[in-house]
Specification:
Elements (H helix, E strand, L loop, with lengths): L10 H6 L3 E5 L3 H12 L3 E5 L3 H10 L1 E2 L3 E5 L5 E3 L2 H5 L4 E4 L6 H8 L8 E4 L12 H8 L7 E6 L4 H5 L4 E7 L2 H11 L4 E6 L2 H23 L4 H22 L9 H12 L4 H10 L4 H6 L6 H16 L4 H12 L3 H9 L6 H6 L5
Parallel strand pairs: 1-2, 1-6, 2-5, 6-7, 7-8, 9-10
Antiparallel strand pairs: 3-4, 8-9
Length: 359
């Protein structure tokens, strides 16, 4: 795949820096985005928190710890040095777990190049502050240093993108001109990017669907049937849209790739970490045992806490999120949570969705 040429905007900075892209995060998705950037004719440098991971990537031309079976082009380099990663990069892709983004940003952003464009591919809501990832980046970016910030999200298992299988994502960015340039730079025949100015909606879809993927996994683990799962996903989208509306996002964004599309994939796909957590809970395993055996991160566990806290703070009805929270953090029996959801006061479907009052 060759890159798609663009003109104007930040492209001259790319050419001056030999088309360098900093990819912050050496997990499966970060490694895959670096691989994709290399296919596009860019020069990606992966920042890894641990020296051992960076060394393994450089020595093996792969990342067997997080993306086994995938060979990386020799042009993909890794480092644990923030200066080496960030210096001269005109585009920075943030791909670290949401709960660690602020700490990593404080470590790396002092080395941000002037005029660099930052794109968050991390999904989540920060606990306590209830901030999205782009808003954390805006807070932590050096004051007085101009930078544009966007969010990339949608249904995308890393292993399938690494194989070159067709994938479509949404890029949320207020500056539509820059968004189109990034879109053209990263889009390819099997990696299609759409744009929107609703950055908040894109981020909320990416963060919220993880919570409901756990719920869908629980549903399947309890063998409640396909009817129940379809109902869960439909009501999940209603809850996601309700919160997005109250927060000022465009409700239609949640019907797109970064909302409904990502929800369908994460809640039903066998490669979904969050669905696997729910599935194993439904089959009787404890949350502690499930998490202890994982090296990767199931964002939905932490997101459930932040999303439920935000819903309470804003007075938004999110009964499914509430039950997932009570199962994960209060030890509520799974089947009792299902009973409580299904025996709530009967309502009109659409009228219920339009309401914003607390349950």
């Amino acid at each position: 795949m060759g890159h798609i040429g663009i003109s104007g905007g930040f492209l001259p900075a790319f050419e001056k820096a030999e088309r360098k892209v900093a990819v912050v995060g050496a997990g499966a998705w970060g490694t895959t985005l670096a691989l994709h950037a290399s296919r596009q004719g860019l020069r990606p440098v992966i920042w890894a928190r641990r020296d051992s991971v960076a060394r393994e990537i450089n020595e093996t031309c792969g990342n067997p710890s997080f993306l086994p079976g995938v060979t990386l082009p020799r042009g993909v380099k890794a480092t644990s040095d923030p200066v080496e990663a960030m210096s001269g990069a005109a585009l920075v892709l943030w791909v670290v777990p949401s709960h660690g983004l602020r700490e990593v940003a404080r470590h790396l952003l002092p080395h941000l190049s002037p005029g660099a464009v930052q794109i968050s591919a991390s999904q989540g809501i920060e606990n306590d502050s209830f901030l999205t990832m782009t808003r954390i980046l805006a807070q932590e970016s050096p004051k007085g240093l101009p930078t544009a910030i966007g969010a990339l999200s949608g249904p995308s298992f890393a292993s399938e993108v690494a194989q070159g299988l067709p994938t479509a994502l949404t890029l949320g960015m207020e500056d539509s001109r820059l968004a189109k340039e990034v879109q053209a730079l990263l889009s390819a025949p099997t990696f299609r990017i759409y744009t929107t100015q609703d950055t908040l909606g894109v981020e909320l879809g990416g963060a919220l669907k993880n919570v409901y993927a756990i719920a869908a996994g629980i549903c399947d683990g309890l063998c409640l049937g396909l009817n129940a799962r379809a109902a869960f996903l439909t009501r999940a989208l209603a809850e996601m849209t309700r919160l997005a509306r109250v927060m000022g996002a465009e409700p239609l964004t949640l019907s797109g790739l970064s909302g409904m599309g990502d929800l369908i994939l994460t809640a039903t796909g066998g490669l979904s970490r969050n669905r696997q957590v729910g599935l194993r809970l439904g089959q009787g395993e404890s949350l502690g045992l499930i998490l202890a055996g994982r090296r990767d991160v199931a964002e939905g566990v932490l997101n459930t806490k932040s999303v439920w806290g935000m819903a309470q703070h804003l007075g938004v009805k999110m009964p499914t999120c509430r039950e997932v929270y009570r199962v994960l953090y209060e030890g509520k029996p799974l089947r009792q949570g299902m009973v409580d959801l299904l025996t709530r006061r009967l309502k009109e479907e659409i009228q219920d969705d339009a309401a914003g009052a607390a349950p």
